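Q: What does the assembled structure look like for these inputs?
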Amino acid sequence: MQQNIDTEKDLQLREFDAMCVNESRLGHKWYHNLKYLIVGILFGVVFVKAEVVSWFRIQEMFRLQSFHMYGIIGSAVVVGMISVFLIKKFDIKTVYGEKIAFHPKKFSKGQIYGGLIFGLGWAVTGACPGPLFAQIGTGATVIAVTLLSAIAGTWVYGFLREKLPH
Amino acid sequence: MVEFIKQPWPWYIAGPLIGLTVPTLLILGNKSFGISSSLRHICASCMPANIPFFKYDWKKEVWNLFFVFGIFLGGAIAINLLSNPNPIEVNPKLASELAGYGITNYNNLVPEDIMNWQSLFTLKGFLLMVVGGFLVGFGTRYAGGCTSGHAIMGLSNLQLPSLIATICFMIGGFIMANLILPIILSL
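A:
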């Protein structure tokens, strides 16, 4: 029982300020994670082939000079919405037979302040966190510095967290 | 077929494929799609420094690190095997604006004229890459997610906080691209 309480606490802590969280309570051997590596590879290929990771495409988007990025994000959201709706409606389970969990997110001022700060960074680097990894993959080695700096930014956020308005 | 794949993919192919990542990750193992969290897991694994925000069992989120490593590999595969040999075509208005800042190389996804190892040590390069990266890492965590976690996963699940965050991402981006970036690029 003690174990269960700790697991619960740890999930809450991991969920803290994160949209993306591992809801699964199952333990698996490490090689089960290889399927996420494969999804990541496919995702990275799409990123590069659709030029989502291009600094130029991001500049076009924020100058309203191209529909490309709006089309991508918009159609991704529509497909995602339909998928989530279908998963909820038909109570679709994971491949391990687990119930798929969704947690509502609470509003915090961080979504405004942090959102604006990230927006500034997005337009200057031409990349959100995902594209940073893909850009390094395409051979733009200097972007590793941008990635390290983003990790440093995340760390500083964690360090200052209690002092920031939320 | 291969020739077809090598061309830049249109939005109506790429967008739905990106959207399908949401149910794929959920069905494969109850994982909510998100990328910026990987930065937090890297902090938690490498330098938790006794900060409560980084004191959790990051190994339970290791799937996320496999996922982003996959994105890196996917980038390498796409550029080496499926690459489009032609430079990126951009809106002529953008091209003429960027030419004014000396940006004319469209051979890479990243503008080589301003983002390279030499320029890293100039004020312009420092602002673009180091300060820019810092804003991305700090801002995404403060907002609780990035384009994938909020704009795609959060909106897919009809979360109002994610809509607010997405609108703020866009406002920040418009301010930077139209008002601040021109100053940085003129340096």
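Chain A touches chain B through 131 residues (CB under 8 Å).
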